[in-house]
Input
Amino acid sequence: MNAGSADIDELSKLMRRGARALNEQFDEDTHLNEVIPKPWGYEYRAYVDEFFDFWALHIDAPRGTSMHVHARKLTYLICLGGQGVTSGLAKEVPVREGTILRIAPGAFHGTRNTGDEPLELIEVEVPRNKFDLIRLKDDYNRAGTAYETKSLEEPDHSMQKVAAFPHAHMRRQTPDGKFRFELRTGMDIFYRRRSEDIFYVPLCVSGVVYLDVEVLTGQEGDKRRPQTDKQYLCISKNF
Output
């Protein structure tokens, strides 16, 4: 999804009415490393460093997120399980396991669960700034409000420091135990693809600078090769 003239018009109207796109304070907003309850389910960080921010979304049926915009950051919406639809101002895109959807800065979007099971998503956000959020419409009366300030602790699967990467933190698996996260080199992925792997996301500065992150899948039909000199966040099913 790219931002068009309708997105620009709506964002301009919101700004004139006093909406603000805020900035995350990395060392102060520590509640973001816990589970954030939502009226449609909950979300939590899976991985974070100075540039990349991975959020796992658990959307209950038949609920959906607000129609919102990230004015300054690029988002990749990748689906781990369930089914739904992501809507922009002009079109809708079906979402199911294996879907990768690129949402450009400034493009309004919202996602609704259209199935019977929870819709499980990962949002890859670059550059990191959780408070770069402005809501246009919402089923839960949150239009115009900032990001949530309340959180729930998850001590059994909390965010932990990554020893090899300064300022990086990662959650080893989802609180429900369905999926796990690990760092792997492109060389390791090249020689050792696994049936349980769903996505490989390169943690490269070039992806941030050029706003272009090549997300690979574990599907047999995906013949793209990982870059052997890059580090990847691997998202897998927890059999």
The mean pLDDT is 94. The helical segments are 5-16, 186-191, 205-209. Residues 5-16 form the longest helix (12 residues). The radius of gyration is 17 Å.
